[in-house]
Write a structure and sequence with these properties.
102 residues; globular; 6 helices; mainly alpha; SMc04008-like fold
Length: 102
């Protein structure tokens, strides 16, 4: 693989992040609990990581603002429009995953 300079690497990673966020915005049918159960992260994790990155750089970004960046709308609006109640099976899988050593 060709050597990639740090600026280009950052630009590529940013493009990947934007594409992932766009993909998740276009798939509101995929519930956060399913993402957590299958991949170990969800939209909330992405928004938390975005806030952490801003905090590390001393940039003002609230939790609500970082969530809106990921969800494309206020979090409460997204929940009301797209989030369904987790099934007992989803909750059990989540509990099992949380109990596993990381």
């Amino acid at each position: 693989m060709a050597e990639i300079d740090p600026k280009t690497q950052t630009e590529l990673e940013a493009a990947v992040f934007r594409r992932l966020v766009s993909h998740l915005r276009n798939r509101p049918d995929v519930q956060n609990i399913d993402l957590m159960n299958l991949a170990g992260f969800c939209r909330n994790c992405l928004s938390n990581w975005l806030k952490d990155a801003a905090d590390e750089r001393g940039l003002p970004l609230t939790k609500d603002e970082s969530r809106e960046q990921v969800y494309g709308m206020p979090y409460d609006a997204w929940k009301a429009k797209h989030q369904s109640e987790a099934s007992p099976e989803q909750q059990a899988a989540f509990a099992k995953r949380q109990a596993e050593p990381h």
